[in-house]
Structure formats: structure tokens, C-alpha cells
Here is the input.
Amino acid sequence: MTQTEELTYAYFFFTDIVGLSDPRIPTKRQIKKIEALTSMIMSCDAFKKTDPNLMLYLPTGDGMAIGFLSGPELPLMLAVELHKRLREYNIGKFPEEILRIRIGIGDGPVYIVKSMSDSNNLWGPGILLARSIMDLGDDDHILLSPLTAEALRELSDEYRELIRPVHDYKMKDGNTILVYSVYGDGIGNPEMPKKNLHQKRMMKSYVKKIKDTTLCNRIEVTLATMDPKAMLTRYKNFYNIENISDEPIQTYLHSITTRIRKKSFNDLNVRVLDKSGKQLRITSINFDKPYQKEFTISFSSPILKGEKDRGYMLEYHSEEPKRYYEEHFNLNCRKYSLSFIYPSDAGFKPILYDMGVENKRRTNAKIRPIVQEAGDGLLKATWTKTDVIENQAFRLEW
Here is the structure.
């Protein structure tokens, strides 16, 4: 390393003005927009109240990059505050005067390099990642790299609500990463970015792998009708799996099929918890279609060969307007239970059907439910089956 180079680690805020490079925009209007953006950023508390010695600043012509040396919160705070100021600035403006931006946030090492004019220049993985994340965005997007997003989501429930995983995207270096988006209460853009979206169905090819590596000891599925009129249903699926291979299991792929159109994965309000109640990371959303979602979860510690008491809970919400639920088994399962919680005065008559393995014909299941009061005017019907075989399926109708 030469004397003109200094290596440091920073959390980067990278923004530019959408559409500013359009040659049809007069130069003076371009300059006015750049000046307006610069002025707004410099007036934000996250910028003006931060020690200049703890910031790295790089103008980029149609935007700027700011590196914060004191943690991941300041880039997010700056993005949120800037969006609020931007919303006020755009009120009453003519369409051609409206200022539209996109923001990318990421972290990593960066070199501070002295230029010929003795000013600081920045180069390295940290700033390049933030730029690449920003480049995926459309109007109003605030996008984050996965490491920065998860670091922030660990800090508070407020950040968990504000920062949500979007989808897998292919970056310029060829790698695919899960990108997060900040939106809510007039901040950010809830739409999925359209550039470099990486969609790939994996469940069919994955099934063979789990047959070779995984034993299903127990599955407990609980459905609860939260709103009988809208048929909004809460799912709590508990899985107890065992590793029967020599390789540790660090991740697991899940698929959710819905009966109604779900525009985004986040519409399902998915949460995955370990046995202690700690939320597990979703490391990939590789397929997100209106009626089918596929995503990968990561365990806090690998499941080793022979471990039997490793369980986790998958929770999500979805409407069931046709009042049925189906469970198809890709693996043999030693014990399966299905519980349905519903208002006693809703007029529901839950029936479980056995879907034939060979002919797929529907017949009344031979197992009878145990029905008991669940409090607050609710009933709970539970069916339990041992030694469920691969390709068997059940259908619950109410």
C-alpha cells in the first residue's frame, strides 16, 4: 500500500437522480436538480450532525456517495429523512421539475485514495456494492445489501417492519444476492425492482436432495381462521427434521402455494423461528410468482448427522376463499398432525380427505378428529397420523 492509500470500513449511502442523463433535459434544469438534492442531503440531521471525521464524501455528478464509519444506522436514517424532505419538495412542482431519486445502501472495505488535486477519492468493495444495489432500483427505491439489512433488522422491531427482503438479483459480478427494500408510511417504493430479477424454480430438483439427506420426524400444522368473512387464515407449521447424511444441513428450501394472487412474498408476512423463538434468516427468495413462492431459510447453527431434536416454526398469513387446505408429502413422515381452529358459530364443518397416492381420488380420511374448545368461542379440531408415506396427500375442507 502506498502512502496515498488508506483502507477503512464504511457503511455507504449511494444515491442518484433518476432520468437526469436524458439529453432532452436542459442543462440548467439538471444543475438545479443536483443543487436541490445536495442541499436537502446536507440539511438532514443524519448528515449535518455527524462528525465530518466519521464520514467519507464523494460527489458523482448526478448524485453522491457518503460513507459512514460509525455503523449501519446513519445511512438508513439519512435515506428516510431525505425521502420525507423530498416528498415536501415535490409538492406543487410541474412534472418536469419533480425530483426523483433511488438509493442503495451497503457496507464493506474501501480505499481512500488521494487524487492529483489532493482530494479524496474512494474505491473498493464497499462503495461498489452500494452502487450496484442502487443501480437495481427504480423511482423512490431504497435498497439494501443483505448483510447491512440483517444487521439493521437485528437492532429493533421497527427496522424489521421497515426493511423487508424483496428477491434474488443477479449482480454485475455474476453473483446472485437477496436484496432488501425499505418502504412504509410514504417512504420508499413497495414495488419489486425490475432489473436483473433472478427467478428459478428449485423445489423439484431439491426434493431428491432432501430425500438423501433428511428424515422427517414430525410435522405439526395449525390453521386458524382470523377473519371468517375474508377467510384470512394464520398458518403455524412446526417441522422436526433429522440429518441422515454426513454433510451438515445449514439451509432448507420451502415452497408456499396460495389460492389467491399474492403480488409479493412479503404479502404473506412470513416468519421462521427456531425452538427458542429466535427468528431465522431468509437467505434467498428465488421464486416469487402470484400463486407460488420459494425461499430458503438458514439455521443459526448447522444440523449435524444424528441430531434429532432440531425443530423450527414457519408462520404466514393467507386468505382461503375456497375454504380448503392441502398438504402433499415429498418425504416419509413419522408423525403428522393437522389442527384447525375456527369460531364455533361460523357454521364450519371441517372434513379431512385422503388424496390417493396412485389415483389421486379423494376419500374420507379414516382418522377421526379430536375436537375441543380453544377459548374465546373457538373450537379446535386435530387429526393425527403416524407413518405418512412419500407422495401421500391430505385435503382439509371446511
In short: Residues 27-43 form the longest helix (17 residues). The chain has two domains: 5-188, 203-397. The domain at 203-397 is CATH 2.60.40.1730 (Immunoglobulin-like).
